[in-house]
Structure formats: structure tokens, C-alpha cells
Design goal:
This protein is an alpha/beta fold. The chain has helices at 14-19, 26-40, 58-67, 82-85, 155-165; strands at 2-5, 46-49, 71-74, 96-101, 104-109, 124-127, 140-142.
Length: 189
């Protein structure tokens, strides 16, 4: 099975206040995020972390990382520093990925995109970064922990949410009917 998640910010005390997480401190938050992750994920599952995995020294992050079940893959987020990139990821960390999840094509990035690869061929787009504060469009949604009760999700769960909350699930097309020109008009036109 494949799971998706984002924006854990392990080790960052300030994230609790910034996004309103219901934890009494960073240790409680980190322990709870690990617990909720491991309740869903088996060792043989793949888990895609869509950025902002954690903060702090490599030793601390390594302890958290090793407690998490699954084969772990990273889409690099804006807060992922050298200490995160050096963890023992199952594949090389990258800024974006296009994967197959069963018969679905899934485009993974840290940032939400208005237009994504293979969008017009039915590809889904999963992202993080917004901590559940930016609604998805069409076949896209935020899979960050703040939007999903602090747990990783499957593609089926993400798609079910898209179908309920994205009114344009089957119709979304970001392009205009004509070209938008920002060039000044030529004299005399």
C-alpha cells in the first residue's frame, strides 16, 4: 500500500502555535505523530512525505525517522535542510515525482499547483505546504497532517475528499479560452 503525508515539522516547537496544533509541546507532538503514523502504516508500505519533514539536529531527526514504519520517500519542502536530506530515505529525495498508485497517475510536490503534469489525462495532484488552509482544485488536495487528523492517507481517501469538496473535480481547467497578453498595446490600436 502507498500512503501520503506532509508538513510534520518534527522537532519544531513553534509549529504548534503557528498552525494551532493541539499538543502541549514538541515531544508530545512528535510522539503523537509517530504513533498515528504507525497505526496506519506497515513496514512493507511506501510512504511519501511531501515536504517539511523536520527540524533540528541529525541525531534527533534520525531517531524520529527510525521509529516510523514503512519505506520512506521524500519530496523536498521549503524547510527540509541538510539534516533531513541525509536521512536514510528509500529513494533519493526529489522536488517532484510522478508515480503510479495502482492504475492511477499521481503527481507529488510540496507546493500546490494550478496545473500539473498529465492533468488532462486524469492525473491526481497531492501536495502539502498549506497546512490545510488552501482548498484543492479539480483533482488535487492537500495531504498534510493538519488537514488529515495528523495521519497519513491513501490515494483512495484523498480522491474521495476531492470528489466531495472540489466542486470542479471533473471540470477543472485552469487555462483561459484565449491568451492573456500583458504586453502594452501597439500605438494606434
Amino acid at each position: 500500500m502507498i500512503f501520503y503525508s506532509a508538513d510534520h515539522h518534527f522537532g519544531k516547537e513553534r509549529i504548534i502555535e503557528l498552525v494551532g496544533r493541539p499538543f502541549g509541546g514538541v515531544e508530545e507532538m512528535d510522539d503523537q505523530l509517530v504513533k498515528l503514523h504507525n497505526e496506519r502504516v506497515e513496514r512493507s508500505d511506501d510512504v511519501w512525505f511531501l515536504g517539511d519533514f523536520g527540524h533540528g539536529n541529525e541525531k534527533y531527526l534520525s531517531r524520529i525517522f527510525n521509529r516510523l514504519k514503512g519505506r520512506k520517500h521524500l519530496i523536498i519542502g521549503n524547510h527540509d535542510r541538510r539534516e533531513v536530506l541525509r536521512l536514510n530515505w528509500s529513494s533519493a529525495p526529489k522536488h517532484k515525482a510522478v508515480i503510479k498508485d495502482g492504475d492511477r497517475t499521481v503527481v507529488l510536490s510540496h507546493y500546490p499547483e494550478r496545473s500539473w503534469d498529465k492533468m488532462y489525462r486524469g492525473a491526481f495532484h497531492l501536495f502539502g505546504h498549506t497546512h490545510g488552509k488552501l482548498p484543492g482544485v479539480g483533482r488535487s488536495t492537500d495531504v498534510g497532517v493538519d488537514a488529515w487528523d495528523y495521519r497519513p492517507v491513501t490515494a483512495d481517501e484523498a480522491i474521495e475528499r476531492m470528489m466531495v469538496y472540489n466542486e470542479d473535480f471533473d471540470t477543472y481547467a485552469p487555462e483561459q479560452d484565449s491568451v492573456i497578453s500583458y504586453a502594452p498595446s501597439a500605438p494606434g490600436m
